Write a sequence for this structure.
DNA sequence: TGCGATTAAATCGTGTACGATGTATTTAGC
DNA sequence: GCTAAATACATCGTACACGATTTAATCGCA
């Protein structure tokens, strides 16, 4: 019937996540640009620095992305000489992604980034950690459905 | 020199936001699909339900998007008959976006969505509101730089 | 052992995001 | 009142995301 009192977009939790994610990517941009990386490419490298030689599927689990997103992204990383992609000899369906020398070197070059982001956030590490856990819990709940 | 203890991606605040945003969009998907809307299109309509007749620039302020993203999105909403786009007579540089009858009707059809999302989140409204404010504060800090 | 079901990546099409640039309109300064 | 600067939107190119489908390899089980 009549228009109900519309909830302003600024008060929606989904929009706060949406816009905070964009703001976060914007904060990373100048730091990553210096390394020739995009934000999702950086996340993929972070996952590989933690554990090298993961399959596309394992990376997808870690990053919550499907092969339709990862395959082109990994090809771009390969074109930059940061990773190598090769079929697994034991199971030819799987593709293992391994860091190259340049890919491993990138970790040192990116080492200052987390500190820069922490500073830009204007929050204490403890506050950020607490927030992270709450946001992760929300995500896990949403995924559980 | 040696590889430093790599921070697992699961412990990064940026990744929790990134993956929670994707999970949120995934939660909205079936609800919006029934209305023929994408998630950003829905957000644009929410902004218009709150205030009709905004310019592209005002919508961009509300949604934190530029015209290069909004223009094609609004054209798709226009093609669906949900909004109309017209140059402002007072200032021909500006384009005003107004809801059509169908666009206004959509608000009623979408009225159950926030409740569904609240339920899927498995959190109380108070907890979600508190989380929203923290995430918004982080976003504003990051944008301030 | 053979073959249908399952699994893992890749491919395809659509829709965001966004930096850089283009174009039309308005404003400002002289 | 005329032009340079500023403003608002649109366009273009690149890179995600993701549903749906395809292709190739492995598994399950009669």
């Amino acid at each position: 019937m009549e228009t109900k009192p519309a909830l302003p977009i600024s008060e929606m939790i989904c929009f706060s996540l949406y816009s905070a994610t964009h703001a976060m990517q914007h904060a990373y941009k100048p730091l990553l640009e210096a390394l020739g990386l995009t934000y999702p490419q950086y996340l993929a490298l972070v996952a590989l620095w933690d554990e090298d030689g993961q399959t596309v599927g394992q990376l997808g689990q870690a990053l919550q992305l499907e092969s339709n997103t990862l395959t082109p992204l990994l090809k771009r990383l390969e074109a930059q000489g940061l990773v190598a992609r090769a079929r697994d000899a034991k199971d030819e369906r799987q593709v293992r992604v391994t860091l190259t020398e340049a890919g491993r070197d990138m970790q040192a070059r990116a080492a200052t980034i987390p500190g820069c982001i922490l500073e830009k956030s204007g929050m204490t590490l403890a506050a950020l950690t607490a927030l992270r856990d709450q946001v992760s819990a929300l995500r896990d709940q949403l995924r559980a459905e």
